[in-house]
Amino acid sequence: MSGGVRGDSDKHSAATVTVRIQAEDFDIASEIAALAEGRADIGAVATFTGLCRDEGGRLSSLELEHYPGMAERAIRTIANEAAKRFALTGITAIHRYGKIAPGCNIVLVVATAPHRQAAFDGASFLMDYLKTEAPFWKKEHRKGGGAGEWVSAKDSDDRAKARWDKR
Amino acid sequence: MRVVYFAWVRERLGKGSEELELPENVKTVGDLIAHLATLGEEYEAVFAVPQVIRAAIDEEHADHDEAIGAAREIALFPPMTGG
After folding, report:
1. Per-position DSSP letters for chain A, written without gaps between them
2. Chain A residues touching B80 at Cβ < 8 A
3. How many domains is chain A partitioned into structurally?
4. Which domains does chain B possess?
5. Higher per-residue confidence, B81 vs A7
């Protein structure tokens, strides 16, 4: 699954929803261009990119494990919900797996809408749900060799998701 | 039934999946976790605290009180840390 092939998109009340789980890196500009192509109703594009941190120089890489099948399905459910809730014109979510070095990309969300608040909210909503519902796990690899710990889930991620319930 | 494991659950059990014949009295996800805890030392250690284990039935999130029914695949894993 790489550039140019868009067979994995769903139409959701005129929103283009694209979800990809891949080992390869992604290109933000081309993902934005793909969402904007042929449309004149987009007034706002919000993107979020999550990168691998080195945690103060401790890490040589993060290893991302995922549950194939369920990972794409879970993110697609969230993306469809975001498209509907914020009346987005499009949303793209790409999550990488495998070993990722500090400074490299892990996840991308692009949300497009007629106005900025919906685009911001759509991207933010998707990330907050993805953190706690998409079946991915991170393991630290330390500098100087040796596997470190599995990253623990944070309560703050649960709270970030919960804030969408109140609206 | 096929049971699949991820992250430290997989690592500590030393396997990513297995086919299991489940006893009649295993009706829910919680029953399955309790049953697994009886299968040996590693299993006992991994499943000693059921609350830290999340589950999916046929690739959909499931609570511990959910019935397994005619599921094809049950996944057990720690809380997710993607993004």
Report:
1. --TT--TTEEEETTEEEEEEEESS---HHHHHHHHHTT-S---EEEEEEEE---TTTTEEEEEEEE-TTHHHHHHHHHHHHHHHHTT-SEEEEEEE-EEE-TTSEEEEEEEEESSHHHHHHHHHHHHHHHHHHS-EEEEEEETTS-EEEEPPP-HHHHHHHHTTTT-
2. 131-137, 153
3. 1
4. 22-83 (3.10.20)
5. B81
